[in-house]
Amino acid sequence: AKLMPGKNVYQYFSQEMNQRVSERLRLEQDLRSALDRGEFRLFYQPKVDLVSGEMHSMEALIRWAHPESGLVSPVRFIPIAEETGLIIPIGQWVLEEACRQNRAWQDAGFPPLRVAVNLSATQFAQPDIVDSIVAVLEKTGLDPEFLELEITESMLMEDVEDAIRILRELKGLGLSLAIDDFGTGYSSLSYLKRFPVDCIKIDQSFIAELLKNSEDAAITSAIIALAGSLNLNVTAEGVETLEHVDFLRRRGCHEIQGYYFSRPLPPEDFTRLLREGRNLYNFKSAS
Ligand code: C2E
Ligand code: MG
Ligand code: MG
Ligand code: MG
């Protein structure tokens, strides 16, 4: 198409923008009723210990089963949920459902695993965040040692002193804390030792090009070394190939998560995986 300045170009753009705005409005409208209609699902993805090959935990990831659009990715609706405040009831549902499901797997006799739940910035900033987590643990009967919360660097850097206070309270409950998407935010390394967290998760953007991009390889190695010297566990996410696994294992990464082992699975499929036992990989025979 010829791009001529003037009326037609303006109309072309405004038409496309209108379409985008109305699509987003529709999504926002639908999101308001999605909780009441029971349209959210949690999928679960194993995290695998790189020494034993065993799964000790899994991450709960939300999906929206939209009546017309099918499964909607959280990348599309979490930002809208954040802006509209809907993230509070949705986040509460996620916490409760993840704890309930994890407790149900334990009651069914499977070896106890930790379930990791992503917290959003708005949720973390709620004055009653600690109380609401206590309430969910009591309601579902899940032992806090089997719950892990994933928060991002930017959530912690908003108000560092306040964040440290909340993290301490959460740790006091007996649960675990992880910093998600590590390396993409602008957290100061000097703060890292002050945050009472158990684990850092290397962002998948560094893993994707690990074998092709020497800078990504250097950053990944540096994060693993940093975690080691601060006595933190380190998980790599977005692990897709055996080459990724070998690289990470040689550098001493503790845990990996990614399509190489399993995509995030609906609860029925995850139950099937649990039936096969928690040993997902034999590293000795692989190398
Ligand atoms: P995240 O917490 O960093 O989750 C990891 C994302 O990487 C997930 O995307 C997962 O499906 C994807 N992933 C896992 N392994 C691989 C792999 O090997 N290759 C690739 N390319 N991707 C992989 P997902 O499920 O689409 O979630 C995207 C983001 O949405 C999450 O990133 C998290 O920030 C947010 N999110 C998901 N569930 C929730 C939730 O319940 N609450 C909140 N507040 N945010 C959530
Ligand atoms: Mg996460
Ligand atoms: Mg992440
Ligand atoms: Mg992410």
TrEMBL record:
Domain of life: Bacteria
EAL domain: residues covered: 24-278
Localisation: Cell inner membrane
Annotated protein name in UniProt: Uncharacterized protein
Organism this protein belongs to: Desulfonema ishimotonii
Lineage, top ranks: Bacteria, Pseudomonadati, Thermodesulfobacteriota, Desulfobacteria, Desulfobacterales
Residues of the full protein shown: 885 to 1171 of 1171
